[in-house]
Amino acid sequence: MANQKVSVQVLNWNGKKFLKGCFDSLLKQDYHPLELIFIDNHSSDSSVEFIERAYKKEIKIRKLKLIKFEKNLGFCEGNSKPYRESSSKYVLILNNDIKIPSRDFISCLVECAKKHNATLVGGVERKFDAKEEKKEEKYHTLNVVGFNANNVIEGDDVFYVNGSCILVDKEKNGNELFPEEYFAYGEDVYLGWKTRLTGKTAVYTKKAVYIHYGSATSGKRSLFLRRYAEKNRIANLLIFFSPKTLIKIFPLFLFENFIKIVYSLKYPKLLKALFSAFFWDIRHLGFILENRKKIQAERKISDEELIKLMSYKVFPEHITPSISNFLNKIAKFYCRMFAIKTYDLN
User: Fold this and answer.
1) What is the spatial distance between Cα 86 and Cα 89, in angstroms, rounded to a whole number?
2) Domain region containing 233
3) Number of domains in the chain
4) pLDDT by residue (tens digit) across 235-261?
């Protein structure tokens, strides 16, 4: 049986320095038929000129397609527009700051999708640092207040697939990808949560490993990142959790934000970004309620089942291990008291 077509979407904004590593590794892939799509979000660093020069042959034979937007549409709309227009069975959403070490990476993702009848498939992310290409393999799930929790899930069945690398079965997922109102960050959680809540499957395969530089566009301590991650995290909670679950987690949510505010007192700009996120959700309550109504109507899985794929670890380790461990013990106690049965409490 012939392979079904895969379209690889690489969205770029001023990421010229990463593009050679990304596209050279994609052009070495053994999967066919394969369509590569370079999507530029109105870059100012001559990214488009570099692609046109470096991959002139591939563009000429239509192995590589260029899409150039006249303004920065963000990660969500920038990926959603080409996705809606794609006729491929599979669409691979891939960050521009990724390099793939093996030739069978895409083949492994497709094989996994077929094996598990999955809507979403992710690979294993290895972070890059200046000394080595590395070390820690990341598996992503969500904690009960809506943020990432790494290396909690041991199996292949996961809550959501990291947005840096998502293979989407378009026939199963449908024509909608990310909400354009999110712009960036938290959109992968939205897609994964929607997938799981509607009874579909999201999985990882350990056979597909990729190197990820991380935060190449926004920067690791970006105020932009903080604001958008916060506002979209809150929107996801309000869209997907039932009223009963929202009431259960609300004290934990308040506790987490109190600690965050205290931590941010030394950094007024971070505090401003946090409150800006809260006010965005208030102003966009209509959008949130409209999405909630539509998605809840499609619900097939209870919150209790979904929480079994989440974590009680509300506080990230980068706060400092001793402090985060203490705070997470409080979160763990709270979850036990109120029967919030996460993956790492079972």
Assistant:
1) 9
2) 223-345
3) 2
4) 999 999 999 999 999 999 999 999 988
